[in-house]
Amino acid sequence: MTRISKNRWALWIFWLLLVPPGLYLVHQIFPTPQIDPWHLAAYVLFFVLTCLMPMNINGASTYLVQWVTIAVFLKYGIFVEILISQLMMLIVMVRSRTDEPMTMRIPFNSIMFFLISCFSGLAYLGAGGKIGSLDLLHILFYGLIFQLVSVFSNQIIYYSYDRLTGSQAKFFSIDALWDFALTLILFPYAIALYISEAYIGVSALLLLGIPFLIMTAVMKLYNNTQLINNDLQKAGEIGHQLAARLTADEVLDQFVIQVSEMFNVDYAYVIDYRGGSLLMLRMFEHQEFKHREIPPLRYYKGIAGRVIVNNAPIIYNKKNEWQDIVTGYIPNETESIMCTPIARNSKIEGVLMLASKKKYAFKSHQLKILDFLSTYFAVSLEKAGYVQKAIAKSERCGLTKLYNYRYLDEALEKSMEKVKSGAIGNLSLVMVDIDHFKAINDEYGHQSGNDILMGLARILEAEVGQEGIVARYGGEEFVIMFENYSKDLTLLFAENLRKKIEMHDFQIQRDLDMERSIENIHITLSIGVSTAPDDSDEPNALLRNADRALYIGAKQAGRNKVAAYSK
User: Residue 432 and residue 437: Cα distance in Å, rounded?
Assistant: First the structure.
């Protein structure tokens, strides 16, 4: 209703010019037969009860009032049916939960219901139908005309509205098919209600109405149960998907995406509770992750703080329920909020907040399912942490914390496949060996040798950064792997590294002395370089070539040198 909302006054003027004069003309042209006020009051009461018990069909609330409106029309005519339909419109407006203002919805829907009543009523009378007739064939034939015109008028008005507002217009939609199906289902009940009331009086409303209301209540309960079961099934699927993730970041991202999709929200936030502060961990807005600097808050501040302090989830249905307590970052368009603590081992570690631009976007059972999902998430996050630690142990050298030979072997295999497929142009290996390392162990002790290995590992990590992979090959040997590094560029890196290490002071403790004094020593490196595909296109051969360059080209040439493999 975006365009129409800009012309609110025009819509109300159109309503004033159409509906009140239209009602007067209908009353004058099609006078209402004599009315028993008690009978009419019983119909109205039964109609209101039916309006208060909508069913959820295809995700939308559906009001099964057609069987009452048809009976009212057949008995009292078009004027009373219009009044009943307008009453239904007001009840629906009050019960429905949307963002659109009442000042727009009331005139628009009043005009729509008025036109539908007029079109269907005039079609009935124009075809030859008579008000108050008790001829069964007459009622069935002309009553069906009334109902079909009512359904098609409704679809035409909605289709025209979608075209005017620029929305995707589709005449034969799923909702239209449901309306048509309900027409066929409810029409016999309407005829039975009308004829029964005509012959046995108001008691017919009790005989037919009470079972119908009970059936509606049971179906509504069943429908709600189905919705809950569907949500639980989706929650279980999300839990299985989370369990399959291996890293904490994967678990976190997958959780936010899946929960946002399941609850159809505009905004989703994961807030970390750490050290008495609330830190924004993930921001997912309009189906994409955002990165903004959000200042941390004290743990008791805002909606997330209230959830932590009370250790209980919460739902806000509209903005005026939470706007006085909010602090921190929440978009201005937000209306509904659902927020739950994330706990692990009975300890709150964060908060999940979902937000929607719509009022009354969340249901109470969804809060319980969200709490259930948060438990799934916490367990999966903990599992991912254990998996990452296990992987780190299997892939890392225990002393230097660099990658080990096993990881290097797998990474080298994958990178060589990239070379063969043309994904990367070059793959270079740098093999590094500490000169005279045995002499250092003999003079200063093995622990001092370990200190040098760990110090060298940190330097190698700093020099390589994100450009390549550093691994401990064994003993005092290290291997660096670069993708898309030519041999000349790799040799330049190796020479700069050799010079840097030659000038670096390594501080060690002389474990073999009585005084265990601290001393600065210098070491040198011998380095060999090989590059694929020039030197080889096989991983093991490339590694052997770098080793050969190290020993023949650098060690045997006097050490403290860089050498490239040559065939």
Answer: 12
d(CA 536, CA 534): 6
Please say if the pLDDT value at position 1 is more than 60. no
**CA within 13 Å, CB half, 304:** 30
Q: State the Cα angle at 533 between 492 and 416, rounded to 5°.
A: 100
Which region among 26-35, 276-285, 505-514 has the lowest average model confidence (pLDDT)?
A: 505-514
Amino acid present at 88: M
Max Cα–Cα distance, the chain, nearest Å: 121
pLDDT at 329 over 50: yes
User: What token pair was written down for 41?
Assistant: 């009051």
- φ, ψ for residue 175 (rounded to 5)? -65, -40
Write down the H helix ranges in 278-423: 302-310, 364-395, 405-421
Kindly report which listed range (245-249, 437-441, 527-531) carries the lowest average pLDDT score: 245-249
Q: Distance between terminal CA atoms of the chain?
A: 76
Does pTM surpass 0.70? Answer: no
Q: What is the pLDDT of residues 468-483, one digit of tens each?
A: 999 998 889 999 999 9
- SS3 of 507-551: the string is EEECCCCCCCCEEEECCCEEEEEEEECCCCCCHHHHHHHHHHHHH
